[in-house]
Structures are given as C-alpha cells and as structure tokens.
Amino acid sequence: MEKYNIFQGNTAISEVIYEVLGYEKNKYMSSSVTKDIYFQSYFYLCNRFGEPEVLDDYKKIMVWRFKVKQYMIEINLNSSWVTFIIYGAGSNKKVLSKNNFRDYSMKSSFFVRYWREEQKNKNKFLNFYSEKKTIREVKIINKLWNNFSKLNSFDSDEWTSERIAEEKQSEWNEYLENYNKSIINTDVFKELSKESYYNSNTKHALKTLRQFLNNMLTSISIRDCSFNIKGRCGCENEKYTNNIKIEYITKLKKK
Fold first, then answer.
1. Which of 133, 171, 212, 239 gets the highest tally of CB atoms within 10 A of its CB?
2. Of 84, 80, 43, 32, nearest to 60 (Cα)?
3. Where do the domains of the chain lie?
C-alpha cells in the first residue's frame, strides 16, 4: 500500500486528538502532549492487539497499523510520546487516492484560496525562479522597470533591470513581488489565514480518525481492572465498542 500522510503539518489532526483524548486545546498544540500516556498506550495496545512492529532496532520505534475504512491509521510510540497518523492510499483505485487530498490538504484555507486565484491569473504572474523569461514576462518587467526607474530618478541609459544600483536591488525585488501580490486582493483572505483547509475528503478522514480514537478509549479487562489507551478507566466509553471496523495490520505490505 502506498502511503500518503493526509494531515502532515496540519493542525486539524491535532485538534481531533486533543478533543477526543481530553487535552486542552491551545495555539501550541503538539504531538508531545501524549507523553503522559506513553506507557499506558503501550500496555493497552499490546494487550489488545499484540506486540508492535519495531521499525528501528536501535531506536526501538514501535508501530501499530490499522486498516480503518479506506485509510490506514498508525499509532507510533517514539522515544518520548505517542503519535497518531492517518494515511490515504495512492495507487488503489478502490480507496481514496492522493489526488483526493492534494498537497494543499496540509495547508491553511488562505493558501488554498490564494493558490486557486493564482492559477486563474497565472498568465499575469512573474516567475522569479526562471532565468529564461517569456516574451510576456519581459514586457511586464520592462513596464514595471520604467515605473520603478521614474520613482527613483534612474538614468535609463545607465541602468537597466538587469544592472541596477546595489543599494536599490532589494527595493526592485520587492517592487516585483508587490506586482504579483497586487494581482490578488489578499486582504479578502486575511480572516482565513490561520484556519486549516477542509474539503469533503478531509472531513471524512477526520471523522474516521475521531471514531477510531473513540474506539481506543474502550476498555480491556486485566483481572478485575479496566484499561484503555489512557490507562485505568471505567465504563464511560463502552458506547464506542464496535463503533467502527478496525483491522490490525501486523506488517506493512510492500507494493
């Protein structure tokens, strides 16, 4: 199975983990918060599912993998805390593919909206990373240079956009960047800048992760004591028993 980490770098997954496992959400959300359930998780997972796969004999990184609906969910015990990762598959057409999430699934709403507007106006943008400019870009740069040189009282016979006074180089670069920014009214998107991006696919993945985590709160019994992934517990989460089908994958199959 080809793996694709759907929510890498996205706070959306942290918000679900914090909420379901009972941590107080804040702007500094991190996987390291689960360090307080490290040994409890190991005890629970081993007793419920069996020994983990050890990815690195030296570092002893322990992993449990589960097939849940069309996803693979991984619980990883590194040297300090517990990490939850949800993957989509990229090659199997029967499951959600990488293209359903795209690379921007880990970005903010601002990024996605900006990217879409950029695609609509790509014939107006300048590519700063290409040494070879198109005829269209040369025309735009020449027009911008004429305006910039007038603002700075440059002698057009002495200076060109390729040969510019050193102390003005950064200002010229900023002038070009501002041109790109002016094509899109970014003020419209400011209120979205700190939000995570969601679409129907990411929402479905997060819902599945939530169901999975709730299932990890159901208890196993050792003698007369009940334990879940957070440690000793009562029967308050028994309503989540069999709430979702979970298939434990002992080894990750190679493609």
1. 212
2. 80
3. 3-106+196-249, 122-183
